[in-house]
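Budget justification note: compute hours in this period were largely spent on complex prediction jobs such as the one shown. Inputs:
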Amino acid sequence: MTIAAIQVENITKRFGDVTALDGLSFSVQPGELFFLLGPSGCGKTTMLRILAGLEAPDSGTIRFGGEDVATRSPYQRGAPMVFQNYALWPHLNVRDNVGFGLVERRMGRRDIHARVEDVLERVGLAGYGKRLPGQLSGGQQQRVVLARALVVNPSIVLLDEPLSNLDAKLRSDMREEIGRLHRETDIAFVYVTHDQVESLSLADRMAVMSAGRIVGVGNPSELYHRPPNRFCADFLGKANLVAATVDAVRQDDVSITTPFGAWHARCADPSTLKTGQSVQCMLRPENITPGKGGDGANHFEALVESIQLTGATLEVSLHCRDHSYHATVLSRYALPLVVGQTGPWHIAIDDTVVISDVEDASRHE
Amino acid sequence: MSKSPSSITPHVILWSILAFLAIFLGWPLLHVFRGAFVDETGFSLTYMGSLLSDPLQLQALGNSLLIAVLVTTACMVVSLPMAWFMARRSFPAKGLVAALLLIPLILPPFVGAVGMRILFARAGSLSALLMQLGLVDGPVDWLGRFPMLGIVLLETMHLFPVLYLNLVASFANIDPSLEDAAANMGASPWRTFRRVTLPLAVPGIFAGTTLVFIWAFTELGTPLVFGMRRVLPVMIYDSVSEVGTNPIGYARVVLVLVISALGFWISKRLVQRSKTTTLGRLTVQRKETPLRGFKLGLVYSFFALILGFALLPHVSVVMIALSQRWFLSVLPEGWTLEFFGRALGSDMTQGAMVNSLFLAITASVIDVILGFCIAWLCVRRKLVGSDWLDTVAMLPIAVPGLVIAFGYLGCFSARFPGSWLDPRTNPMALLAISYAVRRLPYMVRAAHAGLQQTSVTYEEAAANLGASPLRVIRRITLPLLTANLLAGAVLCFAFSMLEVSDSLILAQSEQFYPITKAIYSLMEGLENGVNVAAALGTWAMALLGAGMLWAACLLGKRMGSMFRAG
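Corresponding output:
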């Protein structure tokens, strides 16, 4: 097994009475694009600043490439950061901003110049070297910050909500740009954001954070389709919840009883389930389909409350046994659906996910 | 910022600065208090008691307080409308007006007083003018008859820019959307001003008025020139000669100190209670309404009136320096450049110029170093004890120069007689230090403001890319703070050149006279002494004017924050 680029164990950080980080552990592999995703105030930026050495943890260990770096000052960490507000020094031009870290590494003037020009070209800013940061647009400033981090050939780059200051169009461009820059290098990126779209679309692996804890780790697809708990289910997308009881667990097949009858379901970690336990069953709206499904599906009857056409899809409100559910249906299914009519609906067993109630507690702490 | 575990340097800096302030601020103050409250039997209120039961002393106290209150009120009346127009309205030549408004600061009021006394004296311009017009029968000594009026006028003309700058800065800092919201809810411009703008500007108003109050309360030169002996500062000056023997001087100094500190403390409390200290970030660009037509004329006349009055002392000083003979005529009866030459010609004046330059430069350098270190420790490091440092460094604002000078004289003469720290032997070291200590708060504020306006992420980004703490300061922090530090230094320099009370008290032999003391002693001296004094004053004005102009260019609107008292 390779040595992790970053190995974080049991990091705790308190600010006065507030516990910002509560025993955080995770690892990032070399060259991996790793996301810390969570709502504001969950401690993700604090974690990033601890990695950079700008904040000291109360306890826990941090290793970069196997080396303990917890006692190192920020300037000895070698983990350049892309700051949320860019932090481009206003008194230095683009070239001097980008070359700053190389000067600190005592590199010769000519080498610095060559490296800076090279990296500026890579981020698409060739010829902008003499501009001052104030003369650049938001997207260009963003590129300079990226260049400033990449130019020192680091093995780790830290990104703190890098796209939050850009408008929607630029944001998606820059998202692709960051993905491209990452693929071209073998640098481990740790990327902090509250935007699940950024995270789902870019991440190799991601950790979902809530109230100073990691509540889910995995690749984006796993976490989205088989969230381990309610928080991940809600934070990564829309989720319908159905109360259920566990009847039996056979490997990855979970038999449950729901208000709609006996269902089969999947679970992120079936080994945690016990027979007779009450759980929630999560259904993504886009997986709920009208009509009778085959053997591999769970069925239920529901009343169509309202239908909204958004273009490619229909947003359908369903009512059933005092609960409302939400289905996103492709528009071509529109014809048989009539508001006020009760009909059969189904969802594939593979898309029916049992999540334990237990983790809910951590949200309200 | 994280603390780098091995670094003890910040602690060393912190404690050396505290030690410096303990020796050159704490000790003299303690000495003054001991002199006022300790006699052979130990703690005693005898001296204070005899001070406060003597009607003569009480009259002096009353006069000083009255002067301070009148000056503060007058400054307010003048500054408030001016500041509002400067902050909210645009009009042609506004930049010029803004620059002219700083000129009053470049002349110590007592030098202006010399000029004014001649304009308004029995044989002066006003008498001559009124006699020519046939309005009075014989010459009248206007200011001799109403010395209090003269003092208040002179000090108001000198001090109103301090309050004005504070007000402009406060008005400029108010989020325009707050005023827009008031207008949107139906408040007329006047009601908006009264209900939103003014309350939000309270911190600046209090900060400015406190400074003006303390300066006016402790002003020594002006009453001295007007021959008004019965005010506290002059009485303290008179007790300098008996500093070792008569404790009543210490009691007077303590009285001044207590009242100044009280004024400062009250204003701080009021500001805290008003809870407007945290001003939001500007979310909307401020639009300055252009003035036109009748209103523009009105505003111009108002500014012209104030400026005309405020610049009268300067003009009179220059005219005296240029006049050959000026007796009972509206304008001088002959012009000459002779005195300008003489002002630079004698050993005493040349020495004074050199002394003042040396002292002011030394004090500014000390202040830049101390001020930056203090602000950096307080804003960026937040070590244990840095709150203390901040409080102690701001203390000199509430400690009049008189008090410090008096304390230095008392403790350093007694403790180190004959050494370089004995002001009676050579006051240069203590003069430089007293200038530096007195101006330290402005420097600390300037650096403080600069650091707070400069996002810490600039420094974090530098550390993040491999710059050690010292390199971060050299490559990022200092370059970003250049304007603030330079402007602070220029102000320290200017105020040091103008320093009156320390100079009058500490510099007792001619070879060590700074400019202000040289001017003062010239005025009393030989034939044409007043003219030479005025010429020397003009030279000093020119020098300072250039300095202030430069500082104003560097700082722009931030100039006002230099005079913030908290």
